[in-house]
Design goal:
The complex is a heterodimer of chains A (364) and B (401). Chain A is an alpha/beta fold. Chain A has 15 helices and 11 strands. In chain A, the strands form 3 sheets. A 6-stranded parallel β-sheet of chain A has the order 3-2-1-4-5-6, sandwiched between helices. Chain A has a 3-stranded antiparallel β-sheet with strand order 7-8-9, with helices on one face. Chain A has a two-stranded antiparallel sheet with strand order 10-11. By secondary structure, chain B is of the alpha/beta class. In chain B, the strands form 3 sheets. In chain B, strands 3-2-1-4-5-6 form a 6-stranded parallel β-sheet, sandwiched between helices. In chain B, strands 7-8-9 form a 3-stranded antiparallel β-sheet. Chain B has a two-stranded antiparallel ribbon with strand order 10-11. In chain B, strand 7 and strand 8 form a beta hairpin. The longest helix of chain B has 23 residues. The chains are: A alpha/beta (364), B alpha/beta (401). At the A-B interface, helix 2, helix 5, helix 6, strand 6 and helix 7 of A face helix 2, helix 6, helix 7, strand 6 and helix 8 of B.
């Protein structure tokens, strides 16, 4: 969403997309939404189902595998998430020396195109494990069951490492294009999906970076807020600053204890959190979650409404912001789907392919 | 080596994580990032532990250090009556402004996006907030972890019967930061052609929801969407399996019937017998029994042993890396992902590297995080060209503070 006009940061750019999975497909979608002409080369054994193709292949044309070699020469950007060995087998440049002066090549791979594990075979779950976030993603503690630290890690939903990699690949593409504006020449971007996740894992990396540690040091779980059982479902509260806590105590009202703690300092509250938490839980259990959510927010309390996907689709706030677009699926019907945050210029057709948008098609 | 953001100056009004993370990416890509801070209201990240040597001090926060590397810090009390005019003078000399306050905050200080762009029409303004600047819940507050619940992500993590379950970090913050930096680059390239800046209005909850796109589509089409746990309908074995060692795990995903034959041979070599299960349907039907055998097999080995044996046979496997594993990882070391920076007060320490590697366009960590107000002279005297007298007056009045 921009204030006065859609962005077209990739206008005039021809992108040849080699997407085995979602990473290059998402990068290609972002570039298509920003005005690029994106041509997708079909990849045998592509790990993209019909619904994913309906979403991620919008605004693109596809070509026959046989013509890819010809198109490589005329592309401004080559976008690939192929395994490095497969990229080499297709004669895609994997070093800057191989990139023509007029071109940008963007690789989005599990481990990058260099390093001792560049050629490892990976899937979504192994990528999530490699990025450092899986270890910190565990079931919440439940009474009578093993502590979370003893339970199995959990996989994130929706192939997150590939999508994050796709965003990083698109970022790298814009970075290379901006560089080329003032300094022509070949460019290559190497986006490692492990590194994108590790860069995002700052909160859990910090204790080990800034203090003396040795390999194998135990890792504490990050502490977050309170997931409470309200009278009619879950509610999530995380008070950090003093005014958050005061907002919460004001919301609870005078029930015998909250008026006393409302005058405490933040240090006192933090020191007595374990004693306060059960009292807050008891209050929440008797209170409707809509009330906690809206009245808590009115008092500046960071409180979230845990939503199912159905709830998200029905959320008035997103409707009023125009968050939803429509995408045609394989049976000819259309379903609601998220618009790309910020980057959607509103020009992507609902169906796969770009034929309905003259001028976008490439090759002509 | 050239960089697309050389010569681009960014005013970082970011607070806590999401905004500073976006500005950090821009700094790694070569922008000159000026971080506005104030001793009258210190960035929450500076006060977030852990602290080096376990000494609580605003110059010792590791989280602040890693997220603000390569930036310059200057101090300005935004509540001072003359602050607004200095901010406007500064944006006239900047290309990008990044902010992630609640939408009501900057307008209340008289420095909303329209005022900034009126002063500099080529300015790109990135406004980030939890729920966006429009809509009935625009003023609602959040941290990145709230957004996992709000966007539905927590509802599909974990197993049926579990409460909504978070991912391991406040995911909504770095996802928002990444989308924000991406949008800034798109806007800068757009500006190369149009000559005009723009205001980018980013809702972080929409950023998280966008990464669930096809599950939301499936839900709208009334197709079933399963909670993930660690399983896949397309592969088995598939999951996290316990290994020898304290809280040691390996992820294994066996794709295809050929992959299963190779993996089964590996088990048989170690005298672990599993049903033949030649087809995926057979393996899914016998999933519990197969998982028991795989878990017993992996429990005798380290995660790296399982990984190396599987990878030799082209089977996807990898240890569940902890944070210290990442810091000491030889592959990441070979790629130079944890450069050492020397930070005043704290001393030398590694920081995680840029999100991407560029060839022919440099992306790198430019230096350590700044001390509070370390670059006041640079910003006020060189960039804003204040005289020594005006600078001294600003200090005396509590404006530069």
């Amino acid at each position: 969403v921009t204030d006065d006009r859609p962005l077209r940061g990739a206008s005039g750019i021809r992108v040849l997309e080699f997407s085995h999975g979602l990473a290059a497909a998402y990068a290609g979608l972002i570039l298509a939404s920003q005005g690029a002409r994106v041509c997708r080369v079909p990849i045998e054994g592509r790990n993209v189902d019909q619904l994913q193709a309906a979403y991620y292949d919008r605004g693109k044309v596809s070509t026959s595998p046989g013509s890819a070699a010809t198109l490589i020469a005329s592309a401004d950007v080559i976008l690939s998430d192929l395994h490095p060995a497969d990229a080499r087998a297709r004669s895609l440049p994997t070093s800057i020396e191989q990139v023509p002066a007029t071109q940008t090549v963007v690789h989005i791979t599990p481990f990058g195109i260099t390093g001792p594990r560049a050629d490892y075979v990976m899937e979504d779950i192994t990528e999530w494990a490699a990025g450092g976030l899986a270890y910190a993603t565990r079931r919440l503690d439940r009474a009578g069951e093993p502590e979370a630290s003893e339970s199995s890690p959990l996989l994130a939903h929706g192939r997150q490492p590939e999508l994050l990699g796709g965003m990083a690949g698109a970022l790298g593409t814009f970075f290379a294009l901006l560089t080329r504006e003032h300094d022509p020449g070949p460019r290559m971007i190497d986006a490692s999906r492990q590194e994108v996740q590790a860069a995002m894992a700052q909160a859990i990396l910090v204790p080990f970076i800034w203090n003396s540690i040795v390999p194998g040091s135990p890792q504490a779980r990050t502490t977050q807020g309170m997931l409470l059982e309200a009278a009619d479902g879950h509610i999530y509260i995380r008070a950090v600053e003093l005014h958050h806590w005061r907002g919460l105590f004001e919301l609870i009202g005078d029930n015998g204890w909250s008026a006393d703690v409302a005058s405490w300092s933040l240090e006192m509250i933090n020191a007595n959190k374990e004693a306060i938490a059960p009292l807050i839980a008891l209050w929440a259990a008797q209170t409707p979650r809509d009330y906690i959510y809206h009245e808590g927010q009115k008092r500046g309390l960071p409180v979230a409404m845990p939503r199912t996907l159905d709830d998200v689709l029905a959320w008035t706030h997103l409707y009023e912001r125009g968050f939803w677009t429509h995408v045609a699926v394989h049976d000819g019907s259309t379903v609601r789907a998220p618009a790309l945050p910020v980057l959607d210029a509103g020009e992507l057709p609902p169906e796969r392919g770009a034929a309905s948008h003259p001028g976008r098609a490439w090759p002509e | 080596m050239s960089s697309g953001l050389s010569g681009i100056r960014v005013l970082d009004l970011g607070w806590a994580w999401a905004g500073p993370f976006a500005a950090m990416i821009l700094a790694d890509l070569g922008a000159d990032v000026l971080k506005l801070e104030s001793a009258t209201r210190i960035d929450r990240l500076r006060l977030s532990g852990p602290f080096s040597d376990n000494v609580m001090h605003h110059e010792r926060s590791g989280f602040f250090g890693i997220c603000n590397r390569g930036k310059k810090s200057f101090t300005l009390n935004l509540k001072h009556p003359r602050a607004r005019s200095l901010v406007l003078d500064l944006v006239a000399r900047c290309d990008v402004v990044v902010e992630n306050f609640a939408p009501r905050v900057l307008p209340s200080l008289g420095i909303d996006a329209s005022a900034l762009r009126e002063r500099n029409p080529r300015l790109v303004v990135l406004r980030m907030s939890g729920y966006g600047a429009t809509g009935p819940e625009r003023d609602y507050v959040s941290y990145g972890d709230h957004l996992l619940y709000a966007a539905g992500a927590a509802s599909v993590t974990g197993a049926d019967g579990d409460p909504p379950t978070q991912l391991g970090i406040s995911y909504g913050d770095p996802v928002g930061g990444l989308y924000g930096a991406l949008a800034v680059l798109a806007a800068l390239r757009d500006r190369e052609r149009s000559g005009r800046g723009t205001t980018i209005e980013l809702s972080q909850v929409e950023g998280v929801a966008s990464l669930l796109a096809t599950s939301l589509m499936a839900t709208d089409a009334q197709l079933p969407v399963m909670r993930t746990v660690d399983k896949s309908p397309d592969m088995h074995p598939h999951g996290f399996y316990r290994c020898a060692g304290q809280d040691a795990w390996v992820a294994i995903a066996v794709r295809g019937d050929d992959g299963w034959r190779r993996f089964r041979d590996l088990l048989l070599t170690d005298k672990f017998v599993v049903p033949e299960s030649p087809l995926l349907a057979d393996r899914l039907a016998a999933a519990a029994e197969i998982d028991r055998v795989v878990a017993a097999w992996s429990a005798q080995q380290s995660p790296w042993t399982v990984t190396e044996r599987c990878q030799r046979d082209k089977i996807a496997a990898f240890p569940v890396l902890t944070a210290p594993d990442l810091v000491f990882d030889d592959h990441l070391a070979a790629r130079g992902f944890f450069p050492i920076v020397h930070r005043a007060v704290v001393g030398p320490a590694p920081v995680s590297g840029p999100l991407i590697k560029g060839y022919g366009c440099a992306a790198s960590v430019k230096g350590p995080a700044p001390l509070l107000g370390e670059h006041n002279d640079y910003v006020f005297k060189q960039v804003l060209e204040l005289t020594d007298e005006a600078y001294g007056q600003g200090l005396a009045e509590g404006l530069i503070a």
